[in-house]
Amino acid sequence: MARDIRLAAAVTQEDDRYVARCLDVEVASQGSTIEEALSSLCEALELYFEDEPGPTVPA
User: What secondary structure, in 3-state letters, does the chain show?
Assistant: First the structure.
């Protein structure tokens, strides 16, 4: 089951690259444009949350 979550991100320019960092979990990515950096960050976050355990429901 897919779920939508909102996460904050910050993009900074470092030399000729843009670095996108998630402010809510320790995941970052980079790209040659802001859009590319954010797109790569989304992919990295999908992989990060794929390995995270789902929420637990109290008994």
Answer: CCCCCCCCEEEEEECCEEEEEECCCCCEEEECCHHHHHHHHHHHHHHHHHCCCCCCCCC
Residue 57 has pLDDT above 60, yes or no: no
pLDDT at residue 37 above 90?
yes
Q: pTM of the full predicted structure?
A: 0.80
* Other Cβ atoms closer than 10 A to 10: 10
d(CA 11, CA 31): 10
Which CA distances in Å does 54 have to 9, 33, 50? 22, 33, 9
At residue 49, does pLDDT exceed 80?
yes
Task: Return d(Cα 21, Cα 51) in angstroms, integer.
Answer: 19
